[in-house]
Amino acid sequence: MLNISIAKLEQARQNTQAFAKSLSQAAKGFGTNGSFSGIFKSFIGKFHNDNENKGKFHTQLQDAYKLQFIENSVNNKRAKKYCEAFSSYSDYMMKNGFGLDNFFTRINLKLLADVSLGGNSPILSSSDTRNMVFSIEESPRDWQNELKYPILQRYLAENYYSCEKNQVEIGIFNVNSGLFELKIFDDIEIANAFEEAKTVLGNVKYILDQS
What we know:
The chain is α/β, with parallel strands linked by helices. The chain contains seven helices and eight strands. The chain folds into two domains: 36-96, no CATH class; 100-210, no CATH class. It is 51% helix and 18% strand. Mean pLDDT is 94; it is low at 27-33.
């Protein structure tokens, strides 16, 4: 059984031949906690455990970046951006009553008889009325057109939240803007994403079998 991380699905889609080659070479031969994003995520967890101390965590986040990274104009500007994003994130979560369900859940999705998608989901969060799944992105791509998001929307609705597909909002938290970008994919978009993913991964498997 060929298992491919859902995080790498877009790589396979964009250049199937090169992606298959990279898998073959790997067979033959998370952002880290110390990254800007990794530190940011750790403070998201602290905030959700004790949201009444949001101000304290904002100060601690500033200090964490100073301790972790050499002080220069580039790092200082980036740290400031992440700290401002933390304030925007925490304000949104408190205003809308969201709690942290999980930083991720494992994906185990069989797409073809001999090919499955694995890896980790994005962050899972919910309020009394909404379910939200999102990744933290500092340099957002055209994420709405990536295959993984509609696939994850259906998978997590069925396997994590046990709800209808249209009851899961999925997307990103944009560090640059400090805003959530969320979408609910419709049935046609989801079906098309699954079909294209099957084609892409089927081609990857075929190339690997020929090598």
